[in-house]
Design brief:
Blueprint lengths: L1 E5 L6 H13 L4 E5 L9 H9 L9 E4 L2 H5 L9 H20 L5 E3 L2 E3 L28 E4 L6 E5 L2 E5 L14 E6 L6 E6 L4 H10 L5 H10 L7 H4 L3
Parallel strand pairs: 1-2, 2-3, 5-6, 6-8
Antiparallel strand pairs: 1-9, 4-5, 7-8, 9-10
Helix pairs in contact: 2-4, 5-6
Length: 239
């Protein structure tokens, strides 16, 4: 099966549309969405509506999990997150929040385990040099699909693989173009392609200001530079 893997969309509707257009051209047989769907971006409601409307739209069935920022919308927010969480909740409304709450924290797709951060926790990211013992799990038997770090990666650990398609909203590896992964095991050999596409970043940046998104200064920095504001961010991924 050829699976397209996207994650860390963060309410960036225009970046998501560009990625989905590219994925349709890749002949996707399934779309897997590895969390962080709507929070910290200007179009959370429209982004979730689009994701929920995709089955049968040239991408095969759609399977989704929630990420740590989706979970933040369902919990009592920490004081430093309150303004942003309340803004996103207001945009989504009750029905969409219920839809987020119904999503699992992880799922299995054949022999692929899909998580947001790692099998340990949704906010525990896997980096290219993270020791395998820090995220190993008996549930990971073949391919581990993840997100959270906003850094594209295909990592091999013996016969097992870790695949992170990067971020749709704002990659943090120096390349500002949205990223996703194509995972294909046709013929029995696993092939992974880490793809990048481009879109009109100016539209999203303008919407951050027009809609007065809390934390927009940091989000703007991520979109424009594809880099962390400081080294501390690299220790645990994105908030």
């Amino acid at each position: 099966m050829r699976i397209c893997v996207v994650s860390d969309i963060h309410g960036n509707l225009h970046a998501l549309q560009a990625v989905l257009d590219d994925a349709r051209g890749m002949g996707a047989e399934m779309l897997v969405v590895a969390g962080d769907l709507v929070h910290q971006g200007p179009r959370p409601a429209e982004t979730l509506d689009l994701l929920c409307s995709l089955d049968g739209d040239g991408l095969g069935p759609v399977r989704m999990i929630r990420g740590n920022t989706d979970r933040h919308l369902l919990e009592e927010p920490a004081p430093e997150r309150r303004a942003a969480v309340e803004w996103t909740r207001e945009q989504l409304g009750t029905d969409r929040l219920d839809r987020l709450a119904s999503l699992p924290a992880e799922l299995g797709v054949g022999d692929r385990l899909v998580v947001h951060g790692s099998p340990r926790a949704d906010d525990h990211g896997i980096w290219p040099r993270t020791p395998v013992e820090e995220f190993d799990s008996p549930r990971w038997t073949s391919v581990l699909v993840c997100g959270h770090t906003h850094t594209a990666m295909h990592r091999r650990e013996g016969a097992r693989h870790v695949v992170n398609g990067g971020s749709v909203a704002w990659p943090l590896d120096g390349d500002p173009r949205p990223g996703y992964a194509v995972v294909d095991d046709a013929g029995g050999d696993l092939r992974v392609e880490l793809r990048r596409v481009d879109y009109d970043r100016g539209r999203t940046l303008a919407e951050l200001e027009e809609r007065r998104v809390p934390g927009r200064e940091v989000i703007r920095h991520y979109i424009e530079t594809a880099s962390f504001r400081n080294r501390m961010g690299q220790q645990g991924g994105v908030r």
